[in-house]
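KLTH0E03608p
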Amino acid sequence: MRSILQVPGPVKAFFDQFPLQTYPAVSKKDDASVYEYNAQSYGFREQEAAQRSANDVFKLGVYNVVEDPESGCVLATDPWCLYAQLSLCKKNGLKLAHKKGAQQQQQRQQQRQQPALLVVSRLAASDKSLPILIEGCSKRNVRSTAGINEILSSRLRDAEELMYVSLLDSVVYDCWTTQALCELSVAKFLELYDCAPIDVALLQRAFYQTLREDLLERNDFSLRHLEISRHVRYMHLYQSRNAHQLTAPLFESCKAALDRFAALLGSRTFFSGEMEPGYLDLKLASYVLCFLSLDDQESSLARYLRQEVHALAIHSRAVIAHFK
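Tokens:
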């Protein structure tokens, strides 16, 4: 009687002819993916080489980066991302990355774990808002933009600094966002908020509109400026006043706020009066540097800062020089 566990003859003959073979595991990483990762990663420079475990390293995810022409440092293109970048430098005793040394940095990153600035898609965040902070490796923790802002707010010295930061994150933030949405060209906007430009014009335009709508939702901008949001979303259907009439009051409020900060700074290098910038200095410099990264023809605020408020431009350069 044949057992139910007995292998049928034809099947046995087949496997005798073509025996099973166990192959080694396929690596999850290949040269192309490693190269692509390194091309989008910019390691912070450490004053002293530190031995770190894989779970003791962080990556700051940002929209995009630009090389600062004066210092050669790699800076995030968005004010909130740049503030987080500078804050990490201050807290951890790090120096800003340099594009000129990117190849050497990538080699060092492969040899040892290193904190880095990482250009990622906004889709890396559940709420499509950057920056995000990726901590650890096997035990990975991803902090959202809201979580990062909450931690940074807790590091301010007192209620007065919190008030000034809130002013920057409302009046000046709204002006920056309005300028990005209504003044910048499609190409320039994508340079700031897209990590992988699209060559096809039709797809580029659709992607551009999606990015703009996502930016409307960040920091509750669309709730504070309903008419501007309608103008951005439905500019071909919604009959509103022209963009200049909508944005002019925000620009005037921003100019008044920047003038106030220039008067508050006075002749001091930093607001704290010390040799090291505080978190209020980092927050203000983040906005000023992002405005100054634009041409005068692209941004009326950039033109205003260069021509009228030299003190803030000098202050922002001093902040970068400290972390250079």
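Residues 57 and 256 are 41 Å apart (CA to CA).
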